[in-house]
Task: structure prediction
Amino acid sequence: MEPTPQVTHHRWNDMPVDQLSDTIGRRLITGQDMMLAHVYLKKGAIVPRHQHINEQITYILEGALRFHLGDDAGEEVIVRAGEVLCIPSNVWHQAEALEDTLDVDVFSPPRQDWLDGSDAYLRQK
Result:
């Protein structure tokens, strides 16, 4: 009989906030093959243009984000509370918080740059 895989239980309020800048913070929960994040963005916060190998699903719980998508950032999508944006691997994207926003991001595989702190594009300079 195989052993039961490690099951973990988390409470968002018990997870430490990684304060990336004055306008962006996040909490992370990481499994073996995926990552779940609460991302807190104040109105006007900018997530700079970037891409990554990770598939991303963004679910807006509160607020709204304006995304600029594609190689030339020519596609614009506004995602509001209750809406979901699926971003395939390696698609260039940028986001702007149109209001104070709570965003749930799911990544597969987990974002190694978020785990090891090498995500300089997000951190306050």
